Amino acid sequence: MVVLVTGGASGIGLATARAFAREGARVVVAGRSRESLDLAVAAVREEGGEAMALPCDVRSEEQVERLVSQTVSAYGRLDIAFNNAGVSLVGSLSEFSAAEWDEVVSTNLTGTFLLMRAEINHMRENGGGVIVNNASNAAHMTLPLLAAYSASKAAVLSLTRAAAREFIVQDIRINAISPGPVDTPMWAHRPDETPEDRRERMAAASPSGRVGTPEEVADMVLWLASPAAAYIAGHDLVVDGAMSS
Ligand SMILES: NC(=O)c1ccc[n+]([C@@H]2O[C@H](COP(=O)([O-])OP(=O)(O)OC[C@H]3O[C@@H](n4cnc5c(N)ncnc54)[C@H](OP(=O)(O)O)[C@@H]3O)[C@@H](O)[C@H]2O)c1
C-alpha cells in the first residue's frame, strides 16, 4: 500500500502518516520545509513503515505533477492520497487583502485540484485508488474571521463530490473529511489569540466540551481509505463532536 500525505510534516497530516505506517504502508510525506519533512519521516519510520520525504508546494502545478510522478517512480504505484495541506488566514473580510485571499484559495482549493488531477491520472491507469480531501467543519458553519478559509473549504467539498461522481466508474473512490477544532501547529499562526486561549474558546464552543486530536481525524481517514468504506464515495465525514450540528 503506497500512501501520499500532503502537509504530512505536522498536525493532522503527520498523525495520519504515522497511522498508515502502523498499517505497514509505504508513506510519502510532502510539504514545503525540508527540515520538518526529515523529522516527520523519522517519526513515521518509528512506527515501522517505510517513508520518504518529497518537498512540494501544492500551489505549483509543476511541483505537484513532479510529486506524484516521483512517488510512482520510487514506490511503483499510488494507492491512497490524503490531500491535507492547508492554510488558515484570519481576518475581517473588509480588511482582507487580495494577496491573502489568493494564498488561502490557491493552497486549499487550487492545491487540492492540482493534486487530485495528478493522482487521478495515475490511479485510472493503475486500476483505481482512494483519495481523501481534508476540508473543515468551517465549510458547514460560520466561524468568525474565517470567510476566505470557509469558502475555500466549502469549494473543496463541492470539488470532492463532482470528482467522486465522475471517477467512481474507474474505481477511484473520492471522499472528504471535515474536522472540527484540532490542536495543531496551525493554531500557532493566529495573531489574534494564543493556542491556549483558542483551545479553551473552542472547547467551550463545542457541545463535546473539548477539541479533537489529530489521531481522531487520522483514524477516520484510515477508515475512509479502507475496504470497509468500499461503497462510500462523494461523502464528507464530519469529525467535530457535533459542533456544526
Ligand atoms: N487544526 C484544525 O482545527 C483544523 C480543523 C479543520 C480542518 N483542518 C485542516 O487540516 C489540514 C491540516 O492542518 P493542521 O491543523 O494539521 O495544521 P498544520 O500542522 O499547520 O498542517 C498544515 C500543513 O500544510 C502544509 N502546507 C501549508 N501550505 C502548503 C503548501 N503551499 N504546500 C505544501 N504544504 C503546505 C504545512 O507544511 P509547510 O508549511 O511546511 O509546507 C503543514 O504541514 C488543513 O487543510 C486544515 O485546513 C484543520
Structural account:
The protein is an alpha/beta fold. The chain has a single domain (2-239), classed as 3-Layer(aba) Sandwich (Rossmann fold). The chain is 46% helix and 16% strand. The chain contains 7 helices and 7 strands. A 7-stranded parallel beta sheet has the order 3-2-1-4-5-6-7, sandwiched between helices. Helix 1 (11-22) packs across helix 7 and helix 3 (61-75) runs parallel beside helix 4 (98-125). The longest helix is centred in the middle third of the chain and has 28 residues, at 98-125. It is globular, with a radius of gyration of 17 Å. The N and C termini lie far apart (35 Å). Bound molecules: NADP nicotinamide-adenine-dinucleotide phosphate (NAP). Residues 6-7, 9-13, 31-33, 36, 56-59, 84-88, 107, 134, 136, 179, 181-182, 184-186 line the site of NADP nicotinamide-adenine-dinucleotide phosphate (NAP).
Write the SSE topology:
Blueprint: E1 2-6, H1 11-22, E2 26-31, H2 34-46, E3 50-55, H3 61-75, E4 80-83, H4 98-125, E5 129-134, H5 147-167, E6 172-179, H6 195-205, H7 214-225, E7 236-239
Parallel strand pairs: 1-2, 1-4, 2-3, 4-5, 5-6, 6-7
Helix pairs in contact: 1-2, 1-7, 3-4, 4-5
Bound molecules: NADP nicotinamide-adenine-dinucleotide phosphate (NAP).
